[in-house]
Each structure stands twice: as C-alpha cells, then as structure tokens.
UniProtKB/TrEMBL annotation, chain A:
The keyword Kinase does not apply. It is an enzyme of class 4 (lyase). Belongs to the HMG-CoA lyase family. Its EC number is 4.1.3.4. The gene is Hmgcl. Gene3D superfamilies: Aldolase class I. This is Hydroxymethylglutaryl-CoA lyase, mitochondrial. The lineage of its organism: Eukaryota, Metazoa, Chordata, Craniata, Vertebrata. GO terms for cellular component: mitochondrial matrix; peroxisome. The keyword Mitochondrion applies. It comes from Eudromia elegans. It comes from the Eukaryota. GO terms for molecular function: hydroxymethylglutaryl-CoA lyase activity; metal ion binding. It holds the Pfam family HMGL-like. Mitochondrial 3-hydroxy-3-methylglutaryl-CoA lyase that catalyzes a cation-dependent cleavage of (S)-3-hydroxy-3-methylglutaryl-CoA into acetyl-CoA and acetoacetate, a key step in ketogenesis. Terminal step in leucine catabolism. Ketone bodies (beta-hydroxybutyrate, acetoacetate and acetone) are essential as an alternative source of energy to glucose, as lipid precursors and as regulators of metabolism.
UniProtKB/TrEMBL annotation, chain B:
Its EC number is 4.1.3.4. Keywords: Lyase, Metal-binding. It comes from Eudromia elegans. InterPro entries: Aldolase_TIM, HMG_CoA_lyase_AS, HMGL, PYR_CT. It catalyses: (3S)-3-hydroxy-3-methylglutaryl-CoA = acetoacetate + acetyl-CoA. The gene is Hmgcll1. This is hydroxymethylglutaryl-CoA lyase. GO terms for cellular component: cytosol; endoplasmic reticulum. It is an enzyme of class 4 (lyase). GO terms for molecular function: hydroxymethylglutaryl-CoA lyase activity; metal ion binding. Pathway: Metabolic intermediate metabolism; (S)-3-hydroxy-3-methylglutaryl-CoA degradation; acetoacetate from (S)-3-hydroxy-3-methylglutaryl-CoA: step 1/1. The lineage of its organism: Eukaryota, Metazoa, Chordata, Craniata, Vertebrata. One of its GO terms (biological process) is L-leucine catabolic process. Residues 12-279 form the Pyruvate carboxyltransferase domain.
Length: 318, 308
C-alpha cells in the first residue's frame, strides 16, 4: 500500500528538506464536510452536504473526507452518513475517506460504498479517556480490529493523532509521546499519519520539535499536518512543516468547524487561505482557488454564517 | 535555547502601530481620552515602540485630528519610543512643538499608489521627505521610513522587488534609521516576501529592516516567520488587529500584536512584552470601539474553559 510506496521517495524528500526547499507538490486533504460540519452549531440537511461534497469534487481536490460512521447518539451532525456516502458523485481520481471509530462503523462504511477509512488516535491519555472512555492502548486495540478487516478488504486506512502540540486537559504533550503513538499506528498499517494540533495551541517552535521526533519513527512521505487556527498560528505552523518536508496538509473549506474547547474560537484552517499560500510559494496543489471560494460561499450561505477564510473575505480585485 | 540554535534572532522588537495605523483605519472615531488611555496601557506592556498619532491635516485624516492633544496627553514611559507620522515639514514642526522625539515618513514602491494617496510621484514624495529628514537630523530626531506596497499594489498589482529595494535605499541613504516594508494590502505570501527581502537586503543592512504585514489574506504570520527566518528582527503589529483594509471592504488589515507575540514566545524569541497585558489593552479598546477583537489569541484566551 501507500506506506511501501513512500519509502523510495523519502531520501529525496529529506534531502530537499535539508536544503530548505519546499515540496514541489502538496496534497490538500479537505476535511470540511466531516471535521468542519461536525463542529458547526447548525446541523446541515443531507442534500446540502451532498451538494457541498459534489462542489468540492469539482475544485481539483484529490481527497475529501465525506462523513463519519459513528453513532448518531454521539455525533448527530453525521447521522446521515449512509445517505451522504451513497448520494455523492464519486469523481474518478478523488478519494472519499470516512471516519470509522470501530469495526461496526467500518462494516457500515464499506456497505455504504466507502473505499478508504480513517481512525483517530491521540497523544494524550486524558483526552482519550474523556473522548472515547478508554486508554490509548485500548483504543489502539480497537483499531487493530478495523485494520485487520481493512487489510482483508484492501481498503487503505489513514491514521489521525490528536493533541500533538498540546491537550485541553493535560496541557503540554511530549514529542516523544506523539512519535510513539504515530509509530504504533503506522506499524499497524496506516498508510498516512495526520498529526493534529487539536486546540491550535502550537507554534512553529513546537511544530518543529514534534516533527523532528516523529520523523525519526515515520517516513516524512507518510506524514500529514492538521493544524487548527484557534490562536492564528495555523499557516505559520504549516509553513514550518513544509520546510521540514511534509507534503500533505489538511484544511477545511471556509474554515468550517469551530473549536469545541474554546467557545466562539475558530478551529480548522481555511482551505482557501492554505491554497493561497501554496500558490504564492509556487507549490502545485491542482486546486482551483476560485471554485473553492465559490464552494465556501455556498456552504456559508447554507449555514447562514460568515466565512472564516480571510482570502474569501478579502476577495480583492487586483 | 531554541532560538539561538535555530538561526532565528534572539530578540525581536515589536513596533505597536495600533493607536495610529489601527485607529486611523477604524470606522469609529475614538475620543481623545480613550486614545490616551490606550497608549498608556500599551506603555505598561513592555512594548519598546508605540506609534502614537499622525501629524496630517485633519481634512484628510479626521481620526487623527487630535494629534497635538494626544501627544501632549500621554504618559511617556522611560525606554519606550513614541514615533509619530509627519508627511511633510509642516507636520514635522507641529510634531516637535507637541513634544515628539521620533518621526516617520511614508514612501511607496508604486507610482500609482503614490499618486492616488498623496497626489505626487514617488520622486516628488521623496523630495518632501528629504526636507523632513534634514530638519530631523539637525535636531537629532530619528526618522523611520515606511515603504508601502512592498508585496503588491491595489492599483498596479505586482510590484518588482527591485523597485522596493530602490525606494528603500533612497530612504535609508537620506538618513532613515529603519525601513519598515509594508505589505499594504496583505497579498504577499512567504514566496513573495522572500524574493522581496532578498532584493532589499542587498541594499540595506538587516538590522535596519522591519516588516509591516497585513493579514488581509491570512498570510501575515507566515510572512513574518519567513522574514524572521531571514534575520529580520523588527516587526510591526496592531493590538487586537485594529485597522481594516481600506482597499477591500470588510477585510482585515493589520496583524494582531497578540498573535505575533504568541508565535514569537513559542519560538523562544524574546520580545520583552507581556502578552496578557497586551490582551487587556486590546480588550479595553475593543470595548470602546464596540467591536470584536481581530486577535485569535485574544478570542481563544477569553473563552478558554467555556467548553461546549
């Protein structure tokens, strides 16, 4: 799978990073329909979700996280996961991963047509306990079941690690812990590990420290960053990650999705703002910024809210 | 420490432009006593430089009409600089009479912008500034030079790094001790910031350079980081991100001082500034302006613990 393919690439990637060069291409993973909508106050009707994903599919984005196969008791915003999965237009060349926290969710996802899934770990024991009521070790055992089933069905699995730059309960998180959890998930068979600054507390300093530790255990070609903009640091943190050779970045159209740990504060970094920066750096993403902004306008109208994307807000004609 | 080994400056001087650049670009005009209180609060935060006001005609900039009263009314803290804008000799003399001990002049790297803003060419504007700088030097008054549109112009679009270097060099040679390179419409990215700085650094020593980034496209902190990585050690910012963009309605302008300090703290770079005190000053002025802060750090910090 992907993890095997990335090995031949990594020496070149590391050399480029050492020279201070940026990657030539960056894969943008769009998490708006899942991470974004899951953290919005307004619940969005199924046709609007499908409309959003279909519009995103036309922008050139290669990966669009479609929904989450969790119990609607816990995440009512994603209750229509089966309908969404079955309702969207699947464009060839575009991947539509879905979250599957356990085997049951995995099976439901596959039955609904999912071809890629994601699992969520955390670098904090307290966060894991509060979120899914078990220890990190226990959560990884649960994921083991999903991994086994996914391997049998030839379904790639993406692993997320939350709280990589800080935890709302524990505070500081050691880079070594992040590296340990990342390594475990990678060894279990995740083709990519997305490192999430869940509360947006990280800065270029802590991002660099954390990535240095993780890159000792996981090849940089298998790493992604998922930065939240709660403290306005997201793009600066992404910049540092790029300088270190990371070439996969998660973002959310219109910056959908507030921070559940600080009321009124922002969460996900806006895809438009990220693509604007990457364009300015001459890095290829394949994404059409105008179409992306139009999609952001669409979902913000549907949610009756202002965009969190500064690029969209500015819309300056030069 | 982190910053020593990483090639980043150990110390970055923050130039607070909220009371001038910030308030000048806010819709609501703030009463004199509020301005004075804001500056006094900022003086207690450890900020080394606070741009107080602008000695321009109140016909052009009504928000700064009370420049004399503000200059005379503020408490001057030892070790803090209080520069003021002086676009011409008349403004300069007025500023000195009101007690100013440092002034700033504003050039631009774009002819169109210069024409639209002050109705003259870059060359003509530099002649005017030369008068101010000469007078200032005679009185041992330091002059800071700003170069607007360093990464793009609302009228001309792309601006060549060579032009920015040329205008910067003119201002520096004439006697400005520091050149603040302004991304006036916030269109720059780390790519264009790097190219521009490379050109300017050929003409001006690094320790005489500052960056003044606008956050209109959300790029400010990434641009500032790039500048710092190249050795720039002076950064302009505005408390609470005061001051919208006059060229894109509803868009943001200045980068928030709180967000800059948060990043520098995280990098282990010393600023001498108390982040919490700046947030309090930001809270004060936002309450007075009846607006929400543009600082994400302030937004998050005042809401932390209010778990949904």
């Amino acid at each position: 799978l992907g993890s095997l393919l990335s090995f031949p690439l990594s020496p070149q990637v590391s050399a480029a990073a050492a020279a201070g060069a940026f990657p030539k291409r960056v894969k943008v993973v769009e998490v708006g329909p899942r991470d974004g909508l899951q953290n919005e106050k307004t619940i969005v009707p199924t046709p609007v979700k499908i409309g959003l994903i279909n519009m995103l599919s036309e922008t050139g984005l290669q990966v669009i996280e479609a929904t989450s196969f969790v119990s609607p008791k816990w995440v009512p915003q994603m209750a229509d996961h089966t309908e969404v999965m079955q309702g969207i237009n699947k464009i060839p060349g575009v991947s539509y991963p879905v979250l599957t926290p356990n085997l049951k969710g995995f099976q439901a996802a596959v039955a609904a047509g999912a071809k890629e899934v994601s699992i969520f770990g955390a670098a904090s024991e307290l966060f894991t306990k509060k979120n899914i009521n078990c220890s990190i070790e226990e959560s990884l055992e649960r994921f083991g079941e999903v991994m086994t089933a996914a391997r049998a069905a030839s379904i790639p699995v993406r692993g997320y690690v939350s709280c990589v730059l800080g935890c709302p309960y524990e505070g500081k998180i050691s880079p070594a812990k992040v590296a340990e959890v990342s390594k475990k998930m990678y060894s279990m068979g995740c083709y990519e590990i997305s490192l999430g600054d869940t509360i947006g507390i990280g800065t270029p300093g802590s991002m660099k420290e954390m990535l240095t530790a993780v890159m000792k255990e996981v090849p940089v070609g298998a790493l992604a960053v998922h930065c939240h903009d709660t403290y306005g640091q997201a793009l600066a943190n992404v910049l540092v990650a790029l300088q270190m050779g990371v070439s996969v970045v998660d973002a959310s159209v219109a910056g959908l999705g507030g921070c559940p740990y600080a009321q009124g504060a922002s969460g996900n970094v806006a895809t438009e703002d990220l693509v604007y920066m990457l364009n300015g750096l001459g890095i290829h993403t394949g994404v059409d910024l105008q179409k992306l902004m139009d999609t952001g306008t669409f979902i913000c109208n549907a949610l009756n809210r202002r965009t969190n994307s500064k690029v969209s807000q500015a819309n300056c004609r030069l | 420490q982190e910053s020593k080994t990483s090639g980043l400056p150990e110390y970055v001087k923050i130039v607070e432009v909220g009371p001038r650049d910030g308030l000048q670009n806010e819709k609501v005009i703030v009463p004199t006593d509020i301005k004075i209180e804001l500056i006094n609060q900022l003086s207690k935060t450890g900020l080394p430089a606070i741009e107080v006001t602008s000695f321009v005609s109140s016909k052009w900039v009504p928000q700064m009409a009370d420049h004399k009263e503000v200059m005379r009314g503020i408490e001057r803290y030892p070790g803090v600089q209080y520069p003021v804008l002086t676009p011409n000799l008349q403004g300069f003399h007025s500023a000195i009479a009101a007690g100013a001990t440092e002034v700033s002049v504003f050039g631009a790297a774009s002819e169109s912008f210069s024409k639209m803003n002050i109705n003259c060419s870059i060359e003509e504007s530099i002649d005017k500034f030369e008068e101010v700088v000469k007078a200032a030097r005679n009185m041992n008054i330091p002059v800071r030079g700003y170069v607007s549109c360093a990464l793009g112009c609302p009228y001309e679009g792309n601006i060549t790094p060579a032009k920015v270097a040329e205008v910067s060099k003119r201002l520096y040679s004439m006697g400005c001790y520091e050149i603040s390179l302004g991304d006036t419409i916030g269109v720059g990215t780390p790519g264009s910031m790097k190219r521009m700085l490379e050109a300017v650094m050929k003409e001006i020593p690094l320790n005489a350079l500052a960056v003044h980034c606008h956050d209109t496209y959300g790029q400010a902190l990434a641009n500032i980081l790039t500048a710092i990585q190249m050795g720039v050690a002076v950064v302009d910012s505005s408390v609470a991100g005061l001051g919208g963009c006059p060229y894109a309605k509803g868009a943001t302008g200045n980068v928030a001082t709180e967000d800059v300090i948060y990043m520098l703290n995280g990098l282990g770079i010393n600023t001498g500034v108390d982040l919490y005190a700046v947030m309090e000053a930001g809270n004060f002025i936002c309450t007075a302006l009846n607006k929400k802060t543009n600082s994400k750090v302030a937004q998050a910090s005042f809401n932390i613990g209010t778990v949904n």
